């Protein structure tokens, strides 16, 4: 069974842990929505669904042809995220580090990280889940945003994740078009959030606006002025976090020798899994 982090924290009797989780989650649209599966061991090997089976019509007596979906076997290994620091500063750093790795994590570059969205969707390789604004990028349009949403199959996305610049562009397009597709509501913590076509818009301050595109594919996250918008569906058959039992753990280290204070160690064995490739998509090459 998968649980969002804030719901899992409610099962703990540790008041400090509950407060830590609420503080981390409150300003993070990812951690508010992303469910986590507890796994025993240090990793999970799963079959990622790549393409759906085909269906055909037959006459009586026809020979039926088997059609099966295609899969790719992927292993997600739990990575240790944590450290010793004063609580307030550490909580801010923890959320930022998770959100940065959630987007750009690449275990091939840093074996201590889990693979993030850019790697799981693979925006450097052509596929139906990678939509480009143009060969080298172009200004966002509402039509392209709808195309991104349509790339997620088996239900609408549950989150559109983007930079602040991209959200400002959507707001400008909506105002110019006089569209009624933009709505506002409150999340579980009372924060106002915007929705496009009923889908919450989430901000990730680590999504860069400096990506480079060549031939409609991302080649670098630096050197140019493009950004990426992600459409995500969450769940055990879609995008899901992986965690060791207990999720975040809190360990009292004790009094410090050099100052009148005590220290607490917070650590998290965590990773990310995309069980079906059609449950996430990326709109790349979004310029201002």
Number of strands: 18
Determine the strand fraction and express it as a percent band: 35-45%
Domain count, please report it. Answer: 1
Instruction: Please work out how many helical segments DSSP would assign.
Output: 7
Report the CATH architecture.
Alpha-Beta Complex
What's the quaternary structure here? single chain
Rounded average pLDDT? 87
Low-confidence blocks of residues: none
The level of helicity is 10-25%
The sequence of SSEs as H and E is: EHHHEEEEHHEEHEHEEEEEEEEEE
CATH topology name, in short, is: phage-related protein like fold
Give the overall silhouette. globular
Structural class: alpha+beta
**Would you state the CATH class?**
Alpha Beta
Please give the alpha-carbon distance between the first and last residues.
41 Å
Structural summary, described in words:
This protein has helices spanning 5-9, 15-26, 29-33, 87-104, 117-122, 142-150, 164-177, and strands at 2-4, 35-38, 43-51, 70-77, 79-85, 130-132, 138-139, 159-162, 182-186, 192-196, 199-203, 212-214, 217-220, 227-232, 239-243, 249-255, 262-274, 280-287. With 288 residues, the protein is of the alpha+beta class. The strands form four sheets. Strands 6, 7, 8, 9, 10, 11, 14 and 18 form an eight-stranded mixed sheet that branches.
Short description:
By secondary structure, the chain is of the alpha+beta class. The protein has seven helices and 18 strands.
């Amino acid at each position: 069974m998968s649980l969002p982090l804030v719901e899992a924290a409610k099962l703990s009797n540790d008041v400090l842990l509950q407060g830590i989780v609420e503080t981390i989650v409150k300003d993070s649209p990812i951690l508010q929505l992303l469910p986590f599966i507890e796994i025993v061991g240090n990793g999970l090997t799963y079959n990622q669904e790549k393409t759906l089976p085909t269906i055909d019509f037959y006459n009586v007596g026809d020979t039926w042809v088997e059609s099966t979906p295609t899969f790719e076997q992927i292993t997600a290994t739990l990575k240790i995220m944590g450290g010793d620091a004063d609580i307030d500063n550490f909580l801010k750093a923890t959320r930022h580090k998770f959100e940065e790795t959630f987007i750009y994590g690449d275990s091939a570059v840093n074996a201590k990280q889990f693979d993030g969205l850019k790697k799981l969707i693979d925006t450097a390789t052509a596929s139906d889940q990678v939509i480009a604004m143009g060969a080298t990028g172009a200004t966002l349009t509402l039509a392209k945003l709808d195309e991104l949403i349509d790339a997620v199959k088996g239900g609408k996305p549950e989150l559109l994740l983007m930079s602040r610049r991209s959200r400002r562009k959507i707001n400008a397009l909506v105002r110019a078009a006089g569209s009624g597709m933009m709505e506002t509501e409150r999340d579980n913590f009372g924060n106002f959030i915007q929705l496009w076509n009923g889908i919450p818009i989430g901000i990730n301050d680590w999504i860069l606006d400096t990506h480079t595109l060549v031939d409609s594919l991302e080649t670098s996250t630096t050197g140019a002025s493009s950004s990426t918008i992600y459409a995500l569906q969450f769940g055990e058959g879609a995008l899901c976090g992986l965690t060791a039992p207990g999720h975040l753990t809190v360990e009292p280290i004790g009094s410090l020798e050099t100052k009148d204070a005590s220290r607490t160690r917070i650590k998290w064995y965590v990773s990310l899994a995309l069980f079906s490739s059609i449950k996430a998509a990326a709109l790349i090459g979004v310029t201002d």
